[in-house]
Automatic annotation (TrEMBL):
Belongs to the triosephosphate isomerase family. It holds the Pfam family TIM. The keyword Isomerase applies. This is Triosephosphate isomerase chloroplast type. One of its GO terms (molecular function) is triose-phosphate isomerase activity.
């Protein structure tokens, strides 16, 4: 039994979702995306030395990014303070994970209240690498979202299927379960402090980016799911990011998709000029 399962007190069954047309298809012509700002996250994962992090921060500070984009980078815990001190506005900072409850006797962990105390506004939760390598299950991810939100953090909650799940026809069930766990633990008001990142596992770090059709199909599905299970208003405002092998070359096409409200970038976020280019994706020609 995983940690998340052990902590489950009560599971609420959500109705099955119809996988039909896009919720946004019926919306008026002027679409407000999320809170109105395209969102770019840079997930630095377990990378960086003092020297490389300093260089990356310098490159970002020297870059030109549009006001219309909200940008958040996620260094390792040990680099958070250094980056926070040196990275300039408009860049914001995220942690890559946090503990599921109040801090205490949890060796090696970092709590949400510590991050909040440090002035770190965002946290990434449920990344597929944590789900697979650290055995974080859907319920634990939902509980982490709930606790982080309760401590005043904003959350980038990740979902996504493996290639095997996609090819075996289980993709929608996997996404349903991941979304349901997040939704169970997120109050209506707290959705304003949440973005969802759709990161198909097969596209992460592989150079195999989802096709525009694949990305749009899932993003539309996620928005429809949220409309049906949370509220239409939340669905309209929610920013749904795509992650998985986003780079300078493919970002413009993906940025133009109806239901793509931003990106969560891994490898390309470690190169300042590339990341700056991706931050300008909406202004590039696809
Ligand atoms: O996992 C990712 C972002 O969280 C994506 O990683 P890559 O951009 O390296 O594929």
């Amino acid at each position: 039994m995983t940690f998340g399962q052990a902590l489950v007190h009560q599971r609420v069954q959500l109705p099955t979702v119809r996988r039909s047309s896009c919720h946004r298809a019926s919306r008026c012509a002027v679409v407000m995306r999320g809170s109105g700002r395209f969102f770019i996250g840079g997930n630095w994962k377990c990378n960086g030395t003092l020297q490389s992090v300093t260089q990356l921060v310098d490159e970002l500070n020297a870059g030109s990014v549009p006001d219309s984009v909200e940008i958040v980078v996620a260094p390792t815990f040990v680099h958070l303070d250094r980056v926070q001190r040196s990275l300039k506005s408009p860049f914001q900072i995220a942690a890559q994970d946090c503990w599921v409850s109040k801090g205490g006797a949890y060796t090696g962990e970092v709590s949400a209240e510590m991050l909040h105390d440090m002035g770190i506004p965002w946290v990434i939760l449920g990344h597929s690498e944590r789900r697979s390598l650290c055995r974080e299950d859907d319920e634990l991810v939902g509980m982490k979202c709930e606790y982080a939100l309760s401590q005043g953090l904003k959350v980038i909650a990740c979902i996504g299927e493996t290639l095997e799940q996609r090819e075996s026809g289980h993709m929608w069930d996997v996404l349903d379960a991941q979304l349901a766990a997040i939704a169970r633990h997120t109050s209506l008001a707290n959705w304003a402090n949440m973005v969802i990142a759709y990161e198909p596992v097969w596209a992460i770090g592989t150079g195999v980016v989802a096709t525009p059709e694949q990305a749009q199909e899932v993003h539309a599905y996620v928005r429809k799911w949220i409309a049906e299970h949370v509220s239409a208003e939340v669905a309209d405002k929610l920013r749904i990011l795509y992650g998985g092998s986003v780079n300078d070359a493919n970002c413009a096409t993906l940025a133009n998709l109806e239901d793509v409200d931003g990106f969560l970038v891994g490898g390309a976020s470690l190169k300042g000029p590339s990341f700056i280019n991706i931050c300008n994706a909406q202004n590039k020609h696809s």
